[in-house]
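Q: What would this chain look like folded?
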Amino acid sequence: MVPGLAKLAARSGWEPPSLASPDLIAHVRARAAAVQAVLTGPYRFRIPAAVIAAAPGKVALLACLHDEPFARLGAARTSLCGAAVVLFNTPPERALARRLHGPVAATGPVVGFGVEPPTAIAPLDRLRACCRIPGDYLVFIGRQHRSKGFNRLITLVGRYNRRWPGQAVTLVSIGAGSRLSRPPAWLHQLGVVDEAEKYGLLQGALANITLSRMESLSITLLEGWSVGTPAIVDRASEVLRWQVEESGGGYAISDERDLDDALAALRQPETRAEKARAGHAFLAARYDWHAVCERLIAALPGSAPSPP
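A: My prediction, written as structure tokens:
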């Protein structure tokens, strides 16, 4: 949706098209009285809105709220304010809900997601050989699309390599998305890889970099920290900036000079190790699955209040 259309859509009551499931909603309505809670999400789809209406007072909505035009629609307000509890991934996400739809939309707790340690990590020498990755490299994991900051990332890395040809870096991208028809030699678009290869490439990277601004929590940053890889993120993303600043596990950048400084710092082994340790400690303290599940269960409608 073009951002300028958000207000018009909100006034007209337009809702984004999405999947519907009358049978599922009928089942929720029939079973609502017999269950403690119903978990649904994310906010922008039709099914969660219908679930909230079918089981009033019982629904926990996993918001996954981004600062996007859809978030400003009346349908978003209805879901965020109509659920019994809204579960957020980060404090900045909850602050966004408050800014857009008032305090009623932002009363729920921050729960987040858990990340497990990898069960296998592919050897870096094999990955370098098969993927032809020379020297220092950055890794991007996610959908290779403008909305995820991928175009800007290519621009910034290309300019860096032209400014510092003796310290050029390779950008390795992992995930779905269209490939450039004539990619620069320093861009390796690998597409979808298996989990062991993903973690091997993450572990060997100078940094795990993403310039996406459409996030409620970056799982890929957590995955990078699980194998000791610092992060570089876009300072304009409140969520990713919070993850990096709260953890100390990387750098938030605004421009080319910031990228120069971040890469120069991470090329110092002691600095990179310090950032890696900080990110890993943050992950272990907050995103262990046991701790996440405890927060989730305590937040569900009908749960006993947590002791002070």
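The first strand starts at residue 38 and ends at 40.
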